[in-house]
Description:
By secondary structure, the protein is an alpha+beta fold. It is built from one helix and four strands. The longest helix has 16 residues, at 63-78.
Amino acid sequence: MINTQDTTARPAPVPAKLSIRVSEANRLHHLWNNNGTWWLHYTEHLADFTKRRVRRSLRTHDLELAIRRRDEALRADAA
């Protein structure tokens, strides 16, 4: 019989450091409009010197709501 259980130890998840730049002059930073829907995008820098681009739909066509959702998402991801 073949052993199908994986008994190898997995490394602990690598903590990420968000790469977030706040620009008062550009209130749309980290936002882009894709065919009417606003999206959030930013980069996470990982401890193993790699990076991961995060793109998430904010599921709204309203700019002001998109800005609020962006701010909430960045606060939650930074915590």
